[in-house]
Amino acid sequence: MKSLLIINAGSSSLKFAVFNLPLTQDSLSVYRGQIDGIGANITFVAKDVDGKVLLDTTIMAPEGSNLEAQHQLSLERLLAWIEEQHIELAAVGHRVLHGGKEYCAPVVVTPEVLKVLEGFIPLGPLHQPHNLRPIGVLAKKFPNLPQVACFDTAFHRTQPWEAQTYPIPRKFTEEGVIRWGFHGSSYDFISRQLEDVLGKEKANGGVVIAHIGNGGSMAATRERKCVATTMGFTALEGMMMGTRCGTIDASIVFHLMNHYKYTPEQVSDILYKESGLLGVSGGFSQDMRDLEASDKPEVKEALKLFYYRAAREIGSLAVAAGGLDAIVFTGGIGENSPVARKAITDYLTWTGLKLDPELNKIRGKAHCIEAADSKVAVAVIPTNEEWMIAHHTFTLLAL
Ligand code: AMP
Predict the structure, then answer these.
(1) Is the entire prediction scored with pTM above 0.85?
(2) 3-state secondary structure 121-161
(3) Distance between CA 306 and CA 296 in Å, rounded?
(4) Residue among 84, 113, 104, 306 nearest 210 (CA)
(5) Cα 89 to Cα 374: distance, rounded to the nearest angstrom
(6) Contacts of residue 290, Cβ cutoff 8 Å, sequence gap at least 6
(7) CA distance 3 to 138
(8) Cα distance between residue 197 and residue 190, in whole Å
C-alpha cells in the first residue's frame, strides 16, 4: 500500500501526517506527529491513528551544527522513521504560506515552481523559507517523488479588489502589500462542509467562518467563496490572538520605536509573541484552558477584550458578505470552548441570533448550535488541514 506524507514545516518545528491511499472523505491519518525544538533541543514524537505514542525521542544534532543542518537532520530522521514503518510514499503534500498572485490553487512543485515560490520569501520571511526547505531537500533526494504545495493564501484570492487593497500609495499595492489572508487550507476544508451542515441555501449565503486557535482569523464567504478576511499582509492583523495583537493603530509601532527606543526586532517580538491574550492577561497565559479556569481580574479583562474584538470582526465581515446567514466556529478554541462561542455570539443577539445552550455543549462532530428560532445559523465544524492538503495532493496527481 502506498501513502501520502503531509508536511507543515515551521521555523523550529516540522509537523507531519501520513494518509494511506486511496484517500477517501473519511480517511484518517494513520500516523501523525511532530519534530520540535529545531535549533535547540530537538524532540521527535510520532503517534498512531488512535493517538497512541509510538515514538518519543530526542534528536542529537552534532555539536556546532547550524539551523539549516538541524532542519535537514530532522527531515532525514522523519524519512528514516517512515521507512522503518514500511511506508511507501506515493507523494508529499506541503503547507506553504505564500502562493502570491500566481497560485490561487494547489500546484505540483517543479524546479520552476519552486523558484517562483522562493520569490515570495520577502512577503513571508518568517514562514516561507521554512515551508520550502523540505521541498528542496526532498526534490534533491528523491527527484521522482511528486510534491504538491497548498497555500495559506490561495483561498482568499477570490476577495474583491476593495477587500484586498490597503489605502496606501498604489506602488506598494502593485508590489504585493495587500491583504493576502491566511489559514487557507482550513477555510478550504470548512467551505466544503458547509452544505452538509447548514443546508444549501445558508451555505451559499453570507457565512462567517471563525478559525479561532492560538492564531486566529475569520473569513466571510458568499457562494462558499471568500469575499473578505481578517488577516492581512501578514498573520498579525485582525483578531486578537494567543500572543499576537491583531489589528492596532500602525503608529503604535513608531511610538514603541521612537519613545521606548525598541529595535524593529524587539517591536516584532512584542506584537507577535508578547501581546494578545498573553499580554493583556499580564503574562498569565495564552492558553484558553488556563485562562477560562482563572479568576484573576487581568485574565477576565483579556477574555472580555478577546470576545469583544472577535464579535466586532464578525460585524465587519457580515457587511462584506452582504448579510449574515451563518457563523461557523472552528480551530482549537472555536471547536472546544462553549464559553468562547457563547461570549462572542452574545454580542450578536441584535441580529436575531440565539444559541441553544445544550447544543453548544456538545463536542465532537460537525453540528449546529443555534436555537430553533434563531435568525442566524451557528455551527461548529472541526477543521482538518492535513486531510485538505492530502486531498489536493491525491486529486492533483490523480493517484
Ligand atoms: P489551535 O491553535 O487551533 O491548536 O488552538 C489552541 C487553542 O485552543 C489554545 O488556546 C487551547 O487552550 C484552546 N483549546 C483547546 N482545547 C480547549 C478546550 N477544551 N477548552 C477551551 N480551549 C481549548
Answers:
(1) yes
(2) HHHCCCCHHHHHHHHHHHHHHCCCCCEEEEECCHHHHHCCH
(3) 15
(4) 306
(5) 48
(6) 284
(7) 16
(8) 10
| Cα(36) to centroid(ligand 1), Å | 19
For each of the chain's 399 residues, which pLDDT tens digit applies?
A: 899 999 999 989 999 999 999 999 999 999 999 999 998 899 999 999 999 999 999 999 998 899 999 999 999 999 999 999 999 999 999 999 999 999 999 999 999 999 999 999 999 998 999 999 999 999 999 999 999 999 999 999 999 999 999 999 999 999 999 999 999 999 999 999 999 999 999 999 999 999 999 999 999 999 999 999 999 999 999 999 999 999 999 999 999 999 999 999 999 999 999 999 999 999 999 999 999 999 999 999 999 999 999 999 999 999 999 999 999 999 999 999 999 999 999 999 999 999 999 999 999 899 999 999 999 999 999 999 999 999 999 999 999
Residues 121 and 128: their CA atoms lie apart, in Å, by 5
Distance between Cα 287 and ligand 1 center (Å): 7
Residues with CB under 6 A from ligand 1: 213-214, 242, 287-289, 292, 331-333, 336-337
Contacts of 302 (CB under 8 A, 6+ apart): 277, 280, 281, 284, 291
DSSP classification of residue 22? S
Which one of 152, 269, 287, 295 is the catalytic residue?
Answer: 152
Q: Assess whether 249 carries a catalytic annotation.
A: no
CA torsion sign for 235, 397, 15, 51 is positive
Q: Which residues contact 115 (CB under 8 A, 6 or more apart)?
A: none
